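# nightly structure sweep
# worker-07 picked up a monomer target from the shared queue
# config: single-sequence mode, recycle default, output format = structure tokens
# input follows
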Amino acid sequence: MALPLALTMGEPAGIGGEIALQAWLRRGDGVPPFYVIDDPGRLAELARHLGWDVRVRTLSAPQEAGAVFAEALPVRPVGGRPHAEPGRPDPADAALVIAAIDAAVADVQAGNAAAIVTNPISKEALYRAGFRHPGHTEYLGELAGLATTPVMMLACAELRVVPVTIHLALRQAIEQLSSAAIVHAGQVTRAALVRDFAIAAPVLAVAGLNPHAGEAGALGHEDIDIIAPAIATLRAAGIDARGPLAADAMFSAAARRGYDAALCMYHDQALIPVKTLDFDGAVNVTLGLPFIRTSPDHGTAFDIAGRGIARPDSLIAALRLAARMAARRGGA
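# output follows
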């Protein structure tokens, strides 16, 4: 039997619990077996509140999840009961949110889970409790003992994008953009496309920073001074990187057929096209970790939490992609 996926609790005031319940309810639609690291009583009460027929089974070991998944939602106790109410995060829950992530990493490192899927967290709530990492990605990199920063990819059926700079103000993103960062993102992305997406010879499209990729310097020199040298370095290393490309044209249907992933220079340059193409089904994938981690490509949605109307599509896509990646690595 294939190893199950470990799904973290995420922010308990958000929609993580209800989309986990919905993903289990759609288990007949090809959703791979998973278990949730959460409070079993919380999930059982949430299911009753929403009127959903979900049996919750408390696990004594992650390995039991596969055997019970068809009949009940397997839950690995996180070690406490959250204080938050829907839409109202409580900083006192930060320890449980982090404990769920730690437990998932421990499970996958011990060979008891095939991959990690993380429900959305509230970074603001964690920051108020003293969390010092920018987000999930950086924290997972520390747990994995990486010397370099992992790379974030957003993926849907029609497009894969990698932002070189992520959660920065636009002015800061431009200031911090470097050839080294582009090269690092390109190297990690190329390796992941080969290993986890079964693409033997990936093509990377590299977006320009300025309109029309700078118009040969007329609209800024970053494309000439920073991006072009990075592309040359990648190509010298045997990576098929192309650009700098004008970002206003490289995401058309015809252009997308010419590459396997796009390296983008800042957050919105990457996320706007992928969310426009598939807002509900895009997946966040962390590249460069020694284990697999995916996540829904959305936040905690406090405004609709607890109402049962959140769509589980992105979580289900994250579960399916994690299972496919694990199968390619021979971990499932």
